[in-house]
Design goal:
Length: about 280
């Protein structure tokens, strides 16, 4: 497995691979890898000749009061895991390599990037779209793998690729959960044992909503109130948002129909966690 820290080396190796007609799969990550990331890597391994995993904690997607400095990092453990999963190359640049002084260009997917997480984390998706565009340009993958856990991110990246005519297939991968239902996230490592228990209200309230919808509830407000009530019962939980939106436009909907995304962001203590489920209502 190659570990490349520079754009130049990465490009050189990828140029050689492309000359051998290799198909490339890219898995962009911020590291501190868990089984969720592994599921993306395995999917990429199945369908591509070469698999590149990028490990880069991207400063531009963190707000000034967010956890960029404290974000968990363990490159040695990540590299061991990638090696085990037969990754061909890890691209692991320093911040200065990705953002030299005087960079003025950004990629922004308007509207979709300004709602849900974008409303409480202004500039977050601009940072995500900029770094993902740079990674796409550096690695030139045929396919790139993203988790449904970050549903809004996935929708935005698909739009970015469509709007900019990038010849890259975006492959969505299902959310991997603990046995107790909690979606895996690098940020779960911040949770104390009490907070881990409190965090279970997130998947539980999503399950409750799912059940009610499957039993015929079509009013979004009823589902939203039910979830608010449920989450607010847990003292360590503070709701950032509970939203029921159209899964293409991300516009809020009143009646649950069509392709629907139910997305939540909840603080458990100081840790902000997100989760969601999506479904297509039968016409
Ligand atoms: P991150 O390192 O958190 O930026 O995540 C890198 C990629 O892994 C993103 O595409 C995430 O959506 C995906 N991912 C993170 N957690 C999970 C999970 N629990 N299940 C599936 N994919 C995930």
């Amino acid at each position: 497995m190659i570990i490349s820290k520079t754009i130049g080396t990465t490009r050189k190796i990828i140029h050689e691979w492309k000359q051998q007609n290799a198909f490339l799969g890219l898995v962009p990550t911020m590291g501190f890898l868990h089984e969720g990331h592994v599921s993306l890597i395995r999917e990429a391994r199945k369908h591509n000749d070469k698999v590149v995993v990028s490990i880069f904690v991207n400063p531009t997607q963190f707000g000034p009061n967010e956890d960029f400095k404290n974000y968990p990092r363990n490159f040695h453990k990540d590299a061991t895991l990638c090696e085990k999963e037969k990754v061909d190359m890890i691209f692991h640049p320093e911040v200065e390599e990705m953002y030299p002084e005087h960079t003025y260009t950004h990629v922004d997917v308007h509207q979709l990037g300004e709602t849900l997480c974008g409303a409480t984390r202004p500039g977050h998706f601009r940072g995500v779209c900029t770094v993902v565009s740079k990674l796409f340009n550096i690695v030139s993958p045929e396919r790139a793998y993203f988790g449904e856990k970050d549903a809004q991110q996935l929708i935005i990246i698909k739009k970015l690729v469509q709007d900019l005519n990038l010849p890259i297939q975006i492959i969505p991968c299902p959310t991997v959960r603990e046995e107790n239902g909690l979606a895996l996230s690098s940020r779960n490592s911040y949770l104390s044992p009490n907070e881990q228990l409190a965090a279970l209200v997130i998947p539980k309230s999503l399950e409750l909503a799912k059940e009610r919808i499957l039993h015929g509830e079509t009013k979004a407000e009823t589902i939203r109130s039910l979830m608010h009530e449920n989450i607010n019962k847990v003292p360590l939980a503070t709701i950032d948002y509970v939203s029921i939106v159209d899964a293409q436009t991300l516009n809020p909907i009143e009646i649950i129909q069509g392709h629907v995304l139910l997305a939540v962001a909840v603080y458990i203590g100081k840790t902000r966690l997100i989760d969601n489920f999506q479904w297509q209502m039968e016409a």
